[in-house]
Amino acid sequence: MNRLRVRKRIFLAFLGTFIVLCFAVLFLNSKAAPSRDTLVVGVPSDRCPVFYVDPVSYETVGIGVDLIKKVADEAGYDVEITTITEPNLKEALDNNAYDIVMPFGSSIQSAKGKNTIVTENIMETPFTLVTIKDDTLPTLNSLKIGMPVSLKGVSETVQKLHPGMKIVYYDDIGESVKGLKRGEVDALLNNSYVWSYVLQKPSYINLHVQPSAMFSMGFKAGTVDTIEGREIIKRLDTGISKIKETQVEAITLDYTTRRLYHYDIFDYLYLYGAFIILGTLLFAAVIGTMVFRQRSISLIQEERVRRLIDHDELTDVYSMNGFRKRVEDILRKNPSVPYFLSYNNIVDFKFINDSFGKETGDKLLKFWAKISKEILSDDEAIGRVTSDQFVILRRIEGNARIYEDEKDVVEPVNNYLISQGKNFKVQICSGIYVITPDDIQNMDVDHMIDFARIAERKLRESGKTGFEFYNLNQWESKKRAVEIVGHLSSAIESGEVQVWYQPQVDFSTNKIIGAEALCRWAHGNLGWISPGEFIPALENSGKIYELDCFVWEKVCQDLHRWNTVGKRMTISVNVSRNDIEENPNIHLLFVGLIRKYDLGFDQLHIEITESAYVADSTMLNKTTDTLRSYGFQVEMDDFGSGYSSLNMLKELSVDRIKLDLRFLTGPGFEEKGQIILSYLIQMIQLLGIDLLAEGVETLEQANFLKEKGCVEMQGFYFHKPMSVIDFEDII
Ligand code: C2E
Ligand code: MG
Ligand code: MG
Questions:
Q1: Of these four, 116, 415, 572, 612, which has the most CB atoms within 10 Å of its CB?
Q2: What is the CATH number of domain 39-305?
Q3: How far is CA 482 from CA 89, 408, 510, 521, 526, in A?
């Protein structure tokens, strides 16, 4: 039992010693293994497939990397591949961070001029020239070639081989191709493996490899010539000697058969540009059509909604909303056209509905709306207020128009039910409101409708039918204005409008020194109408220019006639502010008349009323200056009429002022008036402006004026305005 235990102990001790020994041997063995040096290799990364960055691992790989790894391994090195940051290998040689750099064709000098040593050839690299056309090249020695600046290391070797070759450096291959296309170089030089990669780019399709110009160059690693450098090169050379040709071929074959070139966006554009553009255009057209369709649909819908809001469905005239907008629009666009607004209502419409049925009532309304619409022009409008009430905006064209409307609309509506075989006469009440200039200034259509409604209600409540005015006076004056304006052209033609003359005298000699042309109108319907009525009506309607042109021409004809019989006269004509607004070059018109009738510029005096100067002094002063520069006499009419300011006298540039006594003298010829007048005369004379007093009615006034130094006068005391025949008698 004891012996057995002793044997077991001996066995365990033996086993323990064995295990300890085993560990010791293992430990010692590991300590004894020789350590490998790490070789830092600087390489470029822009030379696929020789050196390039793998898009997946982001490591620098390629034929060159695999070869140096193999060589270094044989030489007992571990390899650390680093992408060189210098622009080319020559400069990289000066960086101590790399143990070796590659690839070199032969030993070169570093950028700082240090000598280098290189390994034996790791392989022979084919170099090829590429040109645009497939031509044969001149001798290599006389070529101008382009290459990327990163190949500067190679270029030294190239230069040694072909000293006559000129080299142009470009930032990269892409730039060098552009240089070739621009004709800056005859050909581009690069590693054949690199070309095999680069020429896959679709846009380089017209680049051609020149097989005849192929030559090979060594593919070596190099470093600066130092003791350590030599040691490394020596060790690498032993590694190179162990590499077999077949291994090199296997590595190059491996990379050159890979599909390394990947199309970028520009390649796709180059290849499929036309399709892409067509596709984009097609897509844009489809989107455009869709947007347009959508827009049209929403416009149609908008239009539909607007129609619903602005139109009355039953009668297809404007709704109140639409009518309001339309009236505002029409009045704004035609501010000088006289309009009235009528409010129209069927008497006992409820009775019609109850007795003949709602349908008949509706038909009556539709009929009324239809025939009313037919008589309206584009700048008139009709709207439905509620059930049987319509509002109409219509131009004022005198009483005749009212009777026409009566016949065309009112009578057919009156007889509508009778014509349908029902024994009932439809009656209408209309209230009329004449739209005033004030209404157009402060546009409130509802207000105007209210006035028309008041007149309609008044008529209805009085038990009458037909129409009633809200503002009869306005209607009368509007009607007269319409008669005046509407007849102007025919009145001029028919001789209704005449030019009369009121002589102007020099009170000191009692001689006639000129006359003012004043318009007279014997209207066919209205009889004699005064300029005080027709001049403002024509000014408001924009027709004054037509009248004045007639007057000016007539005056010039008369002046010409008097000239030819030796009675040279001077006539003042009135020019309205609207004339100058109508024709800013009015001076040309007067110059034309003077030339046409062979007159002197001094024979025509141009009177512009004082109020015009107040309204737009800049424009008036400009016109005055131009007229005066031609030799016309410009006169300011109606001075003292209430607008004059002393300041105005300072700015004025007129030849004569017409002082209107009617504004300055009240009833009688009171003391205060005389004081003002005498100072005014004195002031005007001191300013060197000629003066004529008009509206002189009494000898007393004439004597007073003469005493104060104003001798030129015009007024009933001397002569009233007279016809040409009478005027010719007294001159
Ligand atoms: P106006 O240019 O100041 O013309 C003078 C007005 O005073 C004339 O009125 C004339 O008849 C009136 N008159 C002359 N002497 C006296 C007088 O002693 N007492 C009174 N109470 N009145 C006198 P008429 O012809 O009625 O013309 C009124 C205005 O109409 C003119 O004032 C002028 O501004 C304008 N007018 C007249 N004819 C034309 C014309 O052909 N074209 C233009 N644009 N305006 C004209
Ligand atoms: Mg005048
Ligand atoms: Mg006057």
A1: 572
A2: 3.40.190.290
A3: 101, 22, 43, 15, 12
Ligand nearest to the CA of 531: 1
Q: Is the pLDDT of residue 1 over 50?
A: no
Query: Is residue 530 in contact with ligand 1, taking CB distance under 6 Å?
Result: yes
Compute, in angstroms, the gap from residue 518 CA to the centroid of ligand 1.
6
Is omega for the bond preceding 138 within 30 degrees of 0, making it cis?
no
What is the CB neighbour count within 10 angstroms for residue 91?
17
Minimum mean pLDDT range among 9-13, 80-84, 515-519, 610-614: 9-13
Report how far residue 285's alpha carbon sits from residue 32's, in angstroms, rounded to the nearest whole number.
79
Question: What's the CATH code, domain 500-517+543-730?
Answer: 3.20.20.450
As given in the structure block, the two tokens for residue 112 are: 């700082």
Q: What does the pLDDT average to over 511-531?
A: 94
Q: Which ligand is nearest to the CA of 713?
A: 1
Rounded alpha-carbon distances, angstroms, from residue 311 to 78, 304, 318, 361: 94, 10, 4, 19
**Residue 44: cis peptide before it, omega within 30 degrees of 0:** no
CA of 607, closest atom in ligand 1: 2
Dihedral-angle region of residue 640 (phi above 0 means left; psi in -120 to 50 means alpha; beta otherwise): left
CA distance 678 to 267: 99
Pocket flag, ligand 1, residue 502 (CB < 6 Å)? yes
pLDDT tens figures, 428-448: 999 999 999 889 999 999 999
What are the phi and psi torsion angles at 124 (to 5°)? -95, 125
Other Cβ atoms within 10 Å of 612 Cβ, number: 23
Tokens at residue 450, please? 């209210």
CATH number for the segment(s) 310-478:
3.30.70.270
Return the closest-CA partner of residue 190 out of 238, 207, 1.
Answer: 207
Rg over alpha carbons for the chain, rounded to the nearest Å, is 56
Dihedral angle, C-alpha 712, 717, 721, 722, nearest 10 °: -110
Taking the domains of the chain in order of start, what are their residue ranges?
1-34, 39-305, 310-478, 500-517+543-730
Q: What is the residue with the minimal CA distance to atom 33 of ligand 1?
A: 574
**Cα–Cα distance for residue pair 167/180, rounded to 1 Å:** 12
Q: Are 470 and 432 in contact (CB under 8 A)?
A: yes
pLDDT 10s digits, 31-52: 444 568 999 999 999 889 999 9
CB of residue 366 inside a 6 A radius of ligand 1: no
Q: What was the pLDDT predicted at 309? A: 86
Both tokens assigned to 287: 């989107």
In sequence order, what DSSP letters do the residues of 296-307 get, joined into one string?
HHHHHHHHHHHH
Nearest CA among 221, 217, 256 for reference residue 240 = 221
pLDDT digits (tens, 9 = 90+) for 571-588: 999 999 999 999 999 999
Share of the chain above pLDDT 70, in %: 93
Tell me which residue has tokens 């097609």: 282
**Which DSSP string corresponds to 579-629?**
HHHH-TTHHHHHHHHHHHTT--GGGEEEEEEHHHHHH-HHHHHHHHHHHHH
Cα(671) to ligand 2 centroid in Å equals 27
Residue 603 Cβ contacting ligand 1 at under 6 Å? no
Residue 638 Cα: closest atom of ligand 1: 3
**Residue 15: what pLDDT?**
58
Checking if the pLDDT of 465 tops 60, the result is yes
Q: Is the CB of 716 under 6 A from ligand 1?
A: yes
Is the whole-model pTM more than 0.70? no
User: What whole-number distance in Å separates Cα of residue 148 and Cα of residue 155?
Assistant: 10
Q: pLDDT band for 28, please (50, 70, 90 cuts).
A: very low
Residue 162 carries which DSSP code?
-
Question: What whole-number distance in Å separates Cα of residue 406 and Cα of residue 467?
Answer: 10
In angstroms, the CA 560 to CA 593 distance is 10
